[in-house]
Amino acid sequence: MNRPPIRIAPSILSADFARLADEIARVEQGGADLLHIDVMDGHFVPNLTVGPPIVEALRKVTKLPLDVHLMMTNPDAFIAEFAAAGADYLTVHVETCPHLHRTVESIKERGVKAGVSLNPATPISFVEEIVRDTDLVLIMSVNPGFGGQRFIPSSLQKITQARRLIERMKSPAVLEVDGGVKPDNAGPIIQAGADILVSGSAIFSADDYGAVIAALRAAGQSASLPRNPQTMSVHR
Ligand code: DX5
Ligand code: ZN
Q1: Known catalytic residues?
Q2: Among 90, 84, 50, CA closest to 67
Q3: Measured between alpha carbons, how far is 133 from 72 in angstroms, rounded to an integer?
Q4: Of all helices (H) and strands (E), which one includes residue 167?
Q5: Ligand 1 contact via 34 beta carbon (within 6 Å)
Q6: Measuring CA to CA, how many Å separate 100 from each of 60, 74, 96?
Q7: Whose CA is closest to atom 4 on ligand 1?
Q8: How far is the CA of 194 from the centre of ligand 1 (A)?
Q9: Closest Cα to residue 169, out of 123, 201, 137?
Q10: DSSP assignment, residue 124?
């Protein structure tokens, strides 16, 4: 089965927070498809970032879909606020949600697309029972909490497994990969089955954000397509 075109989601975690609107305009002009916003609570992950007021403010300065990644212990308590703030995707971590089905339904009831994310040490099987009901599966390829970390190589196999699960379960979910994604490793990540690449430090440390976004996308074009389960088996 042919996959849709690859989408690029710059993570604003590595942007200049004092000039956020300008930074977002630059990635938007540079061809970004979504804007990835990392919400960290200082508890589930050892860092603090932003909350609903920033999402609401960003909603007013960009047309890009807002892809909100909730790295927080009790996301249920904030789903209504993030939905009202204008999130297009709300992604929760399976490690934080004992009632994941209820959480996913509560996101979707608000007209927001629901994502589920897995830390590097969490097996793919943790999303097996929910994958048909989700709009997005997010594979963390670093331990969440900080930008600028190195891609964990075993993540490639996990991306392949996630793609197979999505196909096997006939899930509508898109597959997103987050952490250490750069133009020089994007090819194998896309070939393993990613639909959306999150990239923070690689984009925002460059002079030309659009050039990095284009290079990430081009890595998909040079990967041998179509991306299907047969071609992915070479990475096992
Ligand atoms: C990490 C965040 C990522 C981060 C990615 O916990 O979820 O979205 O911003 O940054 P890079 O691309 O620098 O690894
Ligand atoms: Zn993220």
Answers
A1: 38, 178
A2: 90
A3: 21
A4: helix 155-168
A5: no
A6: 30, 11, 9
A7: 147
A8: 16
A9: 137
A10: G
Query: What 3-state DSSP class applies to 177?
Result: strand
Determine which helix (DSSP H) or strand (DSSP E) holds 92, and give its type and residue range: strand 89-93
- Average pLDDT for 90-97: 98
36 lines ligand 1 (CB under 6 A): yes
Q: Please state the atom number of ligand 1 nearest to the C-alpha of residue 144.
A: 6
Q: Could you tell me which residues are beta bridge partners of residue 138?
A: 117, 176
Distance CA(139)–CA(173), nearest Å, equals: 12
For residue 139, the CA-to-ligand 2 centroid distance in Å is 10
Rounded distance between C-alpha atoms, residue 190 and residue 57, angstroms: 32
Ligand 1: does its nearest atom lie under 6 Å from the Cβ of 201? yes
Q: What is the pLDDT of residues 30-60, one digit of tens each?
A: 999 999 999 999 999 999 999 999 999 999 9
DSSP 8-state secondary structure symbol assigned to residue 230: H
Atom 1 (ligand 1): residue with closest C-alpha?
144
Domain boundaries, the chain: 7-231
CA 139 vs CA 18, 35, 196: distances in Å: 29, 17, 10
Does residue 180 line the site of ligand 1, with CB under 6 A?
A: yes
Domain 7-231 coded CATH 3.40.50.1760: no
- Can you tell me whether residue 201 is helix, strand or coil? helix
pTM of the model: 0.94
CA separation for the pair 159, 198 (Å, rounded): 14
Q: Is 227 in the pocket of ligand 1 (CB under 6 A)?
A: no
Ligand 2 center to 178 CA (angstroms)? 6
**Centroid of ligand 1 to alpha carbon of 13 (angstroms):** 7
**pLDDT (average), residues 55-79:** 98
